[in-house]
User: Fold this.
Amino acid sequence: MYKRLTLPQFQLKEIKVDTCTQSFHIGNYSCLQAVFELERNIGYHLVQSYLPTSLIVVVSWVSFWLDVDAIPSRVTLGVTTLLTVCSESTSFRDNMPVLSYVEALDIWMGSCTAFVFLALLEFTVVSHIARHHRRFLFWVQRTGVPSPPTTTAALARPAGSDSPPSTAPATPSSKLPPLRLTTREPPSPTTETPASMWTLPHW
Assistant:
């Protein structure tokens, strides 16, 4: 056989030649039988089928590192990779002969399609959980979260004064000096107390 004669997808391993006898309606005739043993070249399908589909699946996993709020980017990436894998599977099936059993290439393409679809499904689940989490936080803010209590410190006033004591928000003792009050001798009951004799505390 011519040594330079090759096939693009197969490699010729062995040729078996044998004689045989066939029976026809007009009599028995001798025949010559040749058996060609072929081996499929893995390099062809590795470059044309397995490597491109593997890269498409890896590209679909990029959506795992995108922000959950980047909905247009993640949807576009997931749908594009899914349609690309489906089109590749269809083109490979058109070039292969129609067989009644499942081939290894069919299992590989089905696995790639499942991985890409699961990546798109993961985005749907994560987006649903994030949306419910934002709704829960909004509900907590609307219903009211108990704020830390605020205490007031009353200012001292002299005995017998009709003016109500003024209040001021309490501040931590580590930032302000202690309260110091100045006392004076009480005035006589017959004289009116001027307003300038009352002293407010000094902070």
Notes: Residues 146-157, 167-175 have pLDDT under 50 and may be disordered. The first strand starts at residue 10 and ends at 24.
